[in-house]
Write a structure and sequence with these properties.
The protein is α+β, with helices and mostly antiparallel strands and 633 residues long. It is 42% helix and 15% strand. Strands 2-3-1-9-8-10 form a 6-stranded antiparallel beta sheet. It has a 6-stranded antiparallel beta sheet with strand order 4-5-6-7-11-12, with helices on one face. Strands 15-14-13-16-17 form a 5-stranded parallel beta sheet, sandwiched between helices. The longest helix is centred in the last third of the chain and has 19 residues. It is globular and about 75 Å long.
């Protein structure tokens, strides 16, 4: 796992006097503290920071072919590199290292751009083809690894993180109001947008070829839902478990110590169970819980201990206390743009603790998307039944009653989800799901901003992008469209972005076997009524691993990997919130209607409405603005 950075002249020679070559890579040292290297010719600079995982002695990057006409820098892992290496050796290629990185070089020599279709793994890489004066960039199918790029004049920049571009004092920091609008709707900024006008994210499953001064972006993979209604449940259980075990086995290839995150849920428990079967030594597992006055509903440490005990794992726990303000500056710096999912807090701490013992950790991420694990999926399914009621009953009776219910004192989302449901259930299917995800809601989308017209286009385009995925022909039924939409939006730019930034901030590599693309393609053939059977989420996965996990783990209510932010904002973080969102601080940019911000905070404090996601989004934005715009870090 590493960090990459590059600068390419689209026309003529690269002005090397303008850049700090080769020391530019220092800004990415956290992604690769073990080594660094660079490639430089008249047209291109490519820099690399290395976190050594495979072939510790000869894996230094960049890596070239024998003739030194093709050079690559790489972030990620190609899990089937040994198979591909054997195939390439048979075709006459000569290898100088035992790394997966060198496989990319020879695969490109042998197959050209379609080589990415052969790679099974997580990756973002840049390859310079000196003979043809071409640059080739690629991002993995699911967006597990990030890749940013920007074109300014006749220069292309690319990097694993935006800070690598922003380090140049002449790089403009203009805010993208489409990105800002998307952030306050979703809590993250979906690809290809970023918060900066000139920087874009390469979409998952896409490549960029740069030649003759032009950029050509192409899609090489997409997920297609094709439910096989003629197969019995047993067929899918056998198939998914075979592919899942294979995916875990591939992700155990490492020349450094590895372990696993163990949350207490089904997904991470299944990963640990299969790891224990495949490993000769006890698995190291890592878990966190929450301290302070948060109530017991968030603490899953007991379930994690049950799994750890069953498999004789070497288990480590850490307790998170309600003081996220101590790490918010690091969170902002890790992302370079506002990111409001407060799962960053537990992710930060579990990554920090895990890195003290191992360099690689396996995670259960992706199980929810593959098998229908989110509460909102049940809400979407229930909405079709709810709409059978007369509109008057829905809007004038049920909704008016629900709107009066105060939020729970313990911070649980039960009432909040019920309110979201009755507000959105009567909408068309795509808009319905969009509003399940929309933390602003239509009523507040204009009220929050001091100049609504400045942001209106961004708000509209965010919904259009979301609905474009929902209405894609890649999924035939409404529930499959929901799964597909999450896989294209929430998964890569929220869940995976959080995991990548928080783990790599601590120089930890995280591998996600549930997101093996062959496993995902198989899961896309499973009928959704086997994933969510009646009102049971993850039915088929739970049945498949029923002999591997304790019944208590299989049957307890999913908590999600988040902190008790709603409770903290009303208690320990109350003064901090009011300080950060004070009128004085809001006046620094004048973007928000101060009365609306005060109302949002007051609603949360009085338990009239849970606004924790929106309040945290405002706090993070303020800290980001102070650091990246006002402070100009």
């Amino acid at each position: 796992m590493c960090g990459i950075l590059g600068i390419v002249s689209l026309e003529g020679e690269l002005d090397q006097q303008k850049f700090g070559i080769p020391n530019d890579t220092d800004v990415l040292r956290h992604r690769g503290p073990d080594d660094w290297g660079f490639f430089l010719d008249s047209q291109v600079f490519m820099g690399h920071r290395r976190l050594s995982i495979i072939d510790l002695s000869t894996g230094k990057q960049p890596i070239s072919n024998e003739a030194e006409t093709i050079c690559v820098i790489f972030n990620g892992e190609i899990y089937n590199f040994q198979q591909l290496r054997a195939e390439l050796v048979s075709a006459g290629h000569v290898f100088a290292t035992n790394t997966d990185t060198e496989v990319i070089v020879h695969a490109y020599e042998e197959w050209g751009k379609p080589c990415v279709e052969k790679f099974r793994g997580m990756f973002a890489f840049a390859l310079w083809d000196a003979g043809n004066r071409k640059l080739f960039l690629a991002r993995d199918r699911l967006g597990i690894k990030p890749l940013f790029y920007a074109v300014l004049g006749d220069v292309l920049y690319f990097a694993s993180e935006m800070k690598a571009m922003l380090q140049y004092i002449y790089f403009p920091r203009e805010m993208d109001f489409d990105g800002l609008g998307a952030y306050f709707i979703l809590g993250y900024i979906p690809a290809p947008l970023t918060i900066f006008k000139h920087i874009r994210k390469l979409l998952p499953g896409h490549t960029i070829e740069v030649a003759d001064g032009h950029l050509r972006i192409e899609k090489y993979w997409d997920l297609v839902f094709a439910p096989d209604l003629g197969k019995p449940e047993s067929y899918f259980i056998d198939g998914l478990m075979g592919l899942f075990e294979e995916a875990v086995k591939l992700r155990l290839i490492s020349d450094v110590p590895l372990g696993a995150f163990l949350s207490g849920g089904v997904d991470s428990g299944a990963v640990v169970a299969v790891m224990s079967k495949l490993c000769s030594e006890p698995v190291r597992t890592f878990n966190i819980g929450f301290g302070g006055e948060v109530g017991g509903y968030l603490d899953e440490r007991g379930y994690a201990r049950e799994v750890a005990t069953r498999y004789k794992a070497i288990h480590t726990e850490h307790e998170v206390l309600p003081n996220p303000q101590e790490i918010i500056a690091e969170i902002v710096e890790a992302f370079d743009e506002p990111f409001a999912d407060h799962s960053t807090i537990p992710s930060y701490y579990v990554s920090k603790v895990t890195r003290q013992y191992v360099t690689v950790a396996l995670s259960g991420l992706g199980g929810d998307e593959n098998f229908g694990g989110y509460e909102r999926y049940l809400g979407f399914k229930a909405s079709s039944l709810y709409n059978l009621l007369p509109q008057y009953v829905r809007e004038k009776v049920i909704r008016e009653i629900v709107e009066r219910i105060p939020e729970r004192a313990d911070g649980h989302y039960t009432v909040n989800h019920l309110k979201r449901f009755v507000r959105s259930a009567s909408m068309p299917e795509g808009s319905r799901y969009f509003n399940f995800m929309n933390m602003l809601g239509k009523d507040r989308s204009r009220a929050l901003f001091s100049e609504p017209d400045l942001i209106r286009g961004g708000l509209e385009r965010c919904e259009e992008t979301f609905l474009g995925y929902f209405n894609s022909p890649n999924a035939p039924s409404p529930l499959d469209r929901v799964f597909y939409t999450d896989i294209k939006t929430y998964l890569p730019e929220d869940i995976l972005a959080c995991t990548d930034r928080m783990s790599m901030w601590h120089s930890l590599e995280v591998r996600v076997p549930f997101l093996d693309h062959k496993l995902m393609e198989f899961c896309a053939t499973i009928p959704n009524n086997m994933k969510i059977k009646m009102w049971e989420k993850k039915h088929i996965l739970k049945k498949a691993v029923s002999n591997l996990l304790p019944k208590s783990v299989l049957n307890h209510r999913k908590q999600g990997f988040v902190g008790p932010m709603g409770f903290w904002l009303r208690k320990e973080l109350k003064d901090y919130t009011q300080m950060v969102l004070s009128e004085k601080n809001l006046d620094k940019h004048g973007l928000f209607n101060k009365k609306t911000v005060r109302k949002i905070v007051d609603q949360h404090l009085s338990r009239a409405e849970i606004n924790d996601r929106l309040i945290w989004a405002l706090i993070v934005f303020q800290k980001w603005f102070d650091t990246y715009m006002e402070g100009n870090t």
